[in-house]
Amino acid sequence: MALVEVKVPDIGDFDEVAVIELLVKVGDSVKAEQSLITVESDKASMEIPCSHAGVVKEIRVKIGDKVKQGSTVLVLEAHGLATDAAPVQVPPAAPAQAPAAQSLTAAAPILAEVTAVAAATPGATVPAHEPSASAVGLPHASPSVRKFARELGVPLEQVPGKGPKGRITLEDVQAFTRSVMSGSVQTQAQAAGAASGQSGAGLGLIPWPKVDFAKFGPIERKEMSRIKKISGANLLRNAIMIPAVTNHDDADITDLEAFRVSTNKENEKSGVKVTMLAFLIKACVVALKKYPDFNSSLDGDALIYKNYWHIGFAADTPNGLMVPVIKDADKKGVLQISQEMSELAKKAREGKLSPAEMSGATFTISSLGGIGGKYFTPIINAPEVAILGVCKSSFEPVWDGKQFVPRLMLPLSLTWDHRVIDGASAARFNAFLGQILGDLRRVLL
Ligand code: CAO
């Protein structure tokens, strides 16, 4: 038996390359041409093969070391060599190109999130980022695939290989990532977290319950509409990312409703019906002008104040929620707003709204007044910072200082972004809005 120093062979144009993986450990039996380490330049990664069969006696490199042609990788007790035998030349290392930029780009939006999921999972049984320092049980994959998985935090050990002889391909890594993202597969770390009741995916939540509903009764599966899928993703982001608080209040609209009814009687022939929502839009513009924070948007550490008042309103459609926008509501009268609203709501229900008709809102109103309910907690339509929820008005006994009198009260629910607005401002905004709705002559002030 001879001790042989296995050195880095000709690695082409590269001067120095970094060791990113150790594929064997001391005591391992290795075959000739078996990969020993993976090195990486800024352009490619490659595996350095062994010059002989034998047993690893000493490893002379560690992860992060820079090596070049001639650097000693390890010392091997080589089989079948006399003690003074010269080391056998090994073929040049074969570069394994990193995945094409195009495929990385295409996969990045989904895959980048998996990194976050894996990285944020405490108590992971498999390191999410660091390559294993041992060759024991090392997954069968090319350096480029290993690199790809490492960059994304994908635990390669858990990826089923569908390539020749079970080799893990780039597509396998992508498919695994998609499965984790869709929830159909859990990483071991996620499963361990869930089992211990500690944590699950990226937010530290336990995984979504998977129930076989058919076990309990007949079921039918229906794909959600495109609009529901899109709005769902937006709602989820806004619900999670905005520290939102909701203030509830009531506005006395007894006189306003009487005015609305008489206006509609007078305008019967015009065909334009004035709705409470149109008055609300007008009143909100006045409140937004008085409290401009509510008409702003966050931009990093700054606030963007908009000197235009475009008011979105939630419209219920057969395909899901849509938010058409009344542009420049400050420059329009209640009749014009009512007319535009009815046209936009009709278009929304027919699925004919253009993107322009749904963009640019600075504040949104979600009215369930025509349906019912008391109060609710609407979700802010980012990048707006507040939204007003309105429910069905009803007559209530209100103390006027001497007696209870029946007044038509409108429930208001204002949700606001606590990063931008504080509770006192929100209470003032609601109180002011109530005053305007209580006496619309204030709009003239
Ligand atoms: N209190 C009492 N009655 C009200 C009211 C209120 N706050 N708001 C409206 N009404 C009445 C109207 O006066 C009308 O009565 P009449 O038919 O007797 O005149 C009736 O309710 C229906 O009004 P409407 O809903 O057609 O009209 P609108 O202007 O109030 O609303 C629109 C229009 C498009 C906002 C509404 O049709 C809609 O889609 N609302 C649902 C919004 C939604 O889904 N929000 C939730 C988002 S979060 O998931």
What does this structure look like?
With 445 residues, this protein is of the alpha+beta class. The chain contains nine helices and 20 strands. Strands 10, 13, 16, 17, 18, 19 and 20 form a seven-stranded mixed sheet that branches. The longest helix has 19 residues, at 101-119. The model is unreliable at 83-91, 94-137 and 195-200 (pLDDT under 50). Oxidized coenzyme A is lined by residues 275-277, 313-316, 321, 345, 366-370, 378, 390, 392-393, 410. The site of oxidized coenzyme A (CAO) has 19 residues, from helix 7, strand 14 and strand 17.
Break the fold down into its secondary structure elements and pairings.
Blueprint: E1 2-7, E2 17-22, E3 29-30, E4 35-40, E5 44-49, E6 54-59, E7 66-67, E8 72-78, E9 95-97, H1 101-119, H2 143-152, H3 170-182, H4 188-195, H5 226-241, E10 244-252, H6 254-266, H7 276-290, E11 296-299, E12 302-305, E13 311-313, E14 315-317, E15 320-322, E16 325-326, H8 334-349, E17 363-367, E18 386-390, E19 394-399, E20 404-417, H9 423-438
The structure holds oxidized coenzyme A (CAO).
The site of oxidized coenzyme A has 19 residues, from helix 7, strand 14 and strand 17.
